[in-house]
Amino acid sequence: MKVGRVLWALLSVSCTVQAEEAPPAVHHIEEGAVLHSQRWFSEEWRKKFNSGDVVYCLQAYLPDATLHISFGPLAQLVEKLIAPLKNPATLRGQLEIGAFWNASKVVLGFEEMQAFDDHGEYASTAMVVDADTVIVTSPIAFKSLYGQVHGEVLSEMWVRTEDKMTWKIRSAMVALQDLGPSHSDGAAPATKTPEKQRDASADKPTPKPTAAPQPTHRSKDEVLAGDLDNTMGANGTNGAAAVSKGHSTFLAGLAILVAVSVGAVLVRRAQNRRAAAISGFESMLG
User: Fold this and answer.
1) Which carries the bigger pLDDT value, residue 275 or residue 192?
2) Is-contact 89 82, C-beta < 8 A?
3) pTM of the predicted model, to two decimals?
4) All domains of the chain, ordered by start, with CATH?
């Protein structure tokens, strides 16, 4: 009898230890619902950027968010035109990130962003980490003053805020990788042959000589070579003005965004004080 009781006691201890060491149960996550909830915010960010609503774009980031971006073929231009950015750049907080996106539009001419599509060339991929965290990747492209910019959103972490209805960006890594022609088909604009040019000009008076127009877009080789002295570089008169514009744009963007943020805080505090005063008055009335 005693041996039987000892064996039973040992068996009970063994079962208890195994139960304590068992892994915690994995909670079921409705991934489809989580992805559907977050996806709207990615698409809305793209729409707001294309419409020029930079304030919305910065507010889509958490106050302590981080953006890491490498500029690829635009690295030399960015370092010259948007001081004090370097390549790659790590921007911290809403204001720095918002100022960069503002400068990218004003100085580099970024527009018509393509990314976060449901399907096609710019379709995004998303991974549900948990019910409140989603990581998104996507090809990305912009039109710019220097041609079509292509790259990749390598990782963009979206988290659900306390209200459980809004998603914001905690961190993002973006790489700009290629600078191509600005034409949608990738081909250079058609030009007339010398014979057709002569035929077309035969019936027209000879125009007075004028200065050759400056090209609107620079080739990829020119950008990579850094030959910016006479156009957007820091050494020429035009270049110095462009650098000054880029620097002032970045700083002005920061100033505006600071003002907007401070204004929002003051309004919120005023509303809180008003609510507290009303509550106190009601308590006095009993």
Assistant:
1) 275
2) no
3) 0.61
4) 31-183+235-269 (3.10.450.50)
